[in-house]
Structure formats: structure tokens, C-alpha cells
Amino acid sequence: MPRNYDIAELKRLDVKHHLPAQQDYKLIEDMGGSRIVTHAEGCYIHDGDGNRILDGMAGLWCVNVGYGRKELADVAYEQMLELPFYNTFFKTVTPPTVKLAAKIASLTGGKLQHVFFNASGSEANDTVFRMVRHYWKLKGEPKRKVFISRWNAYHGSTVAGVSLGGMKFMHEQGDLPIPGVEHVRQPYWFGEGFGTDPVQFGKDCAKAIEDRILEVGPENVAAFIGEPVQGAGGVVIPPPGYWQEVEAICRKYGILIVADEVICGFGRTGEWFGHQTYGFTPDIVPMAKGLSSGYLPISANAVSSDIVEVLKTGGDFIHGFTYSGHPVAAAVALRNIEIIEREGLIARTRDDTGPYLAKALATLNDHPLVGEARSVGLIGAVEIVSEKGTNQRWGGAEGNAGPVVRDRCIENGLMVRGIRDTIVMCPPLTVSHGEIDELVGIIRKSLDEALPLLQAL
Predict the structure, then answer these.
(1) Distance (Å, rounded) from C-alpha 327 to C-alpha 333?
(2) Handedness of CA 55, 59, 65, 68 (dihedral sign)
(3) Which residue has the higher pLDDT, 186 or 3?
(4) 69 alpha-carbon distance from chain centroid
(5) Cα dist. 56→137, 246, 293, 361 in Å?
(6) Which residue, 357, 452, 338, is CA-closest to 405?
(7) Structure confidence by residue, pLDDT tens digits, 26-41
(8) How confident is the model at residue 192 (pLDDT cuts 50, 70, 90)?
């Protein structure tokens, strides 16, 4: 049960002392403080004002097994009593860390048999940046430094992560990206290929990667990095065949493929990893979020044996973090994976709740505000348009309608994100049919309430 918090005092202290992530601090001040989330169970969160909210975002794309898992708390407690912390710098390692590495290797399979640990998805992509460049230098090709990414991609909030990502509004803060990162078009059919053949659009987007490789010079390109599904970019689901085209291009020029699975990993798309859903084979797989269902901070990089064999020729890989392979986080992640396996959440997402979500979202296609409803597994999106049958936006520009619909959803008891004019969701993998019905029902109600508000703009 929640503690008896003084919510008014917490909001005062929030404004006075706390700087929340990715927020407008003046807006938080004007609001009188952030929403105080006090407790949660299953697929619901509760705030200090007495609201019970269906968490359509699984925290932040991460609480895959749902809230209130006592056994995750118990295993953390047990590990803290036995060994709360030790590092991996001193030719040392702890039992949960080794076991977790082996478990991840069994899930990724193939040549992805080695695992490097970090504490966040951003750190995992920093690891990608340094490891890939170091690899090519050891290979005798030090000119291979360039990463190719996509516009609207999200790869974290560190300097390297933001640079690898393709969100221009983030680049504007800090004079980014850093040199050595190129961006190409994204496979966002609804936004950028509307009215064209989706398969051909996917081929055109893949060709943009090849064109940039040739422009930069294949001898200078180190890797292509991409999320199987662009989550924070608005649940951009690639057209059929896109990833096969990308893989063929990268192999043609000897370029590494990095599949950023920070969001897609651990069942979100209906397989353990998104690259398994889309049928391609990466060389490095950064992962986080669902690895521990967000119960403790941890991330990992699965790395191919081919890369590791080259790294072995270079002496120390002088990279790592204090909390790389943290034993408590590793113990919790191991038990989290055990829960996913024991409860069959991957197959359930692929065969049951994922298709059910797709059918439920499709019922929104008759709404005058909806241009497209799409999903894969338990990650979905609803596009808001000003004119049915088009991809035209309210006010002639993106971003006017999304916040209006999002705010109505939250007010009506559903936590979702509004990314530009796209309402995105990814409920816990434990979500029931009834909760999916509730989720879609709240979206419909919120669309109804948003329509006159948008018409008044």
C-alpha cells in the first residue's frame, strides 16, 4: 500500500529542487509541480491526487512484466544481502553477471555470444560508438569511422546517443551531432510515403542508405544503426522487406549492422528481439528497458564472436562504467527473463494479445480524426489527421493535434505519449483483453472530445 505522502509538499519540493528529464522547467513550475506517481500494480499506476491510470506506456517502454512483482523485489533483497555491489574492472565478476550474460547469449543466438553491460540504453549506444571504431582500427581500417543512422531515430540522450539519433530538436541543444554521423530518410510510410506502394517505398528508403555509403565512401563507413521499429520516433513500423534490403546493402560493403533493441527487445514485437521479428542478423545488439522490466537500471550489448575475436588482439578495451554488470541489477534481470519465459509472454504477445491489440486499434479507423492505426506485437500508434483519407495535419503542420489528444487520454485515465501528431502506446506484456478494450475505448472517447477543440484552433 502507498505511504501517507504529503503530496502538496512533494510538489513544492519538486519545483524547488528537482530537474525532471526532458521537461520544460517553466511549465513544471507553472503547473505547481509534476504529477506524483505513488504506487502501481499490474498495468495501472496511481498518483497522489487519487487517480488510477491505465499505463499504456509500460513506464517508459519498459515495464514488460507489469508492476508489483514481489519476486523481483525479493531477488534484489537477497542479492543485496549476499553482495550488493562489485565491479568488473579488476579482472573480477559476480555470479549473476556471468549467468545473465550466458542467458542473453542463449536468447540472441548465432554469433551473438558475448555481452557487455551498462546501466542505460544511452550508455549501450555509447559503447557501440567506441567499440565499433576500436574494432575497425584493430582491423587495420582506421578510416572506417562514419555511422549511418536515420532522421527521427532515437538512440539516447548522451552526446554520442543524441548524435547517433536523428532528432533535430535534440541536436539543437549542444551543437550536435558530433562529426562522423550521417543521417538518411526513415521508412515512415504514413508520413513520407503516403499514397505510394509501401514495398517500393521501403526499397527507396534502403537505397538512401546505399547512396549515402557511396557518397561518403564505403571505406569510411563503420556501421549502420537502426531500431527495428522506431519507438520514440512515433512507432515507425518499416514496410515489408525493408530490413532485408538494408542487410544486403550493409553486407555488400562490409558494414556492421547495429540493431538498437532498447525498446523492441524482450518480447515487445512478439519475439525476443525485433531483429528476429523482421528476419535480419545484426552484428551488435544494444538492449535495455525490458531487460529488467525497468525494475533496476541495466543495459547490455550483445556482440558477435567475429568482433570479439578482433577485440582480443588489441589489449585492454578501455571502456566501461562503475555499474557495468551490477550484481543486483543482473539478478533482477535474470528473474525478469525467467518470468517472461515461465508465463509464456512472448508467444502470448505474438499469438494472442498482439493480434487482439491490432484488431482493437483497427476499430478506430472509422473516426474522422484517425488517418491510420498500426501496430506490431504490443507496440502501436494512431495517426491524427485533419482530413480523412489523407495524411494532412491540423493547422498545416505537425504537432498541433497530438498534444491535445494525449492530454485528453491522460485526463480520461490512460497514459500514452503524443509524438508530433501520433498517439503511441506499448502496454505491459501482461495486459489483458479487457485492458486493451479499455485502452482503445479511452482513445476513442478522447478523440471525440478532442475533435471540437481542434476545430476551434
Answers:
(1) 10
(2) negative
(3) 186
(4) 22
(5) 44, 31, 14, 13
(6) 452
(7) 999 999 999 999 999 9
(8) very high
What residues have CB less than 8 Å from 113, skipping those under 6 apart? 105, 304, 305, 308
Gap between the Cα atoms of 269 and 375, Å rounded = 9
Q: What CA–CA distance (Å, rounded) separates 216 from 287?
A: 28
CA 202 to chain centre: 21
**Angle between helix 327-342 and 70-82 (nearest 10):** 150
What pLDDT sits at residue 3?
80
Please identify which residue in the block is written with the cell numbers 504529477.
35
Cβ partners under 8 Å of residue 272, min gap 6: 107, 108, 265, 266, 346
The residue type of 135 is Y
Nearest 5°: phi and psi at 318? Answer: -85, 75
Nearest to 301 by CA among 184, 130, 77, 443: 130
Residue 136 identity (one-letter amino acid):
W
Q: CA-to-CA distance for 129 and 164, rounded, in angstroms?
A: 9
For the purposes of burial, counting CB atoms within 10 Å of the CB of 149, is it exposed (0-12), middle (13-18) or buried (19 or more)? buried
Give the tens place of pLDDT for each residue, 237-295: 999 999 999 999 999 999 999 999 999 999 999 999 999 999 999 999 999 999 999 99
Residue ranges of the alpha helices (H) in 55-197? 58-61, 70-82, 95-108, 121-138, 159-164, 168-171, 189-192
The pLDDT of residue 457? 84
- Distance from C-alpha of 332 to C-alpha of 132, rounded to nearest angstrom: 29
The full DSSP string for 222-262 is EEEEE-SSBTTTT-BPPPTTHHHHHHHHHHHTT-EEEE--T
Residues 6+ apart with CB under 8 A from 361: 373, 374, 375, 380, 382, 440
**Coil, strand, or helix at residue 157?**
coil
Instruction: For residue 60, give the nearest of 20, 19, 12 by alpha carbon.
Output: 20
* Strands, E assignment, 230-345: 256-259, 284-287, 299-304
Q: Which of 359, 381, 22 is nearest to 188 (CA)?
A: 381
The span from the CA of 136 to the CA of 169, in Å, is 31
